[in-house]
Write a structure and sequence with these properties.
By secondary structure, this protein is mainly alpha-helical. It has two helices and no strands. It has a domain at 29-76. It has helices at residues 9-42, 49-73. The longest helix is centred in the N-terminal third of the chain and has 34 residues, at 9-42.
Length: 85
């Protein structure tokens, strides 16, 4: 902490970088999981692969929103809603 009560710019940069990396990992993993689930569901039912991609994209967008809410709700370096993560 600096004398003004604010963290140093180095601390802010490291915190933002850690949070951004965590959030990106969660969004990408959610997309891949949802896409794979969509493919598993659409192939036997003769559904469109584009619907599977859309499903994955919606899941990833929701993960992004959840991560941003987690960041606003609690000042941490994580995109998780769980305490202490």
């Amino acid at each position: 902490m600096s004398l003004s009560g604010f963290p140093s710019t180095d601390t802010v940069y490291k915190t933002a970088k850690t949070y951004g990396r965590d959030l990106l990992e969660r969004v990408l993993s959610t997309f891949l999981q949802a896409f794979i689930a969509g493919v598993v569901v659409t192939q036997p039912l003769n559904g469109s692969m584009w619907y599977a991609a859309l499903t994955g994209g919606i899941g990833a967008a929701l993960a992004l929103v959840k991560g941003l809410i987690a960041r606003v709700r609690d000042v941490t370096n994580s995109a998780s809603l769980a305490k202490g993560v």
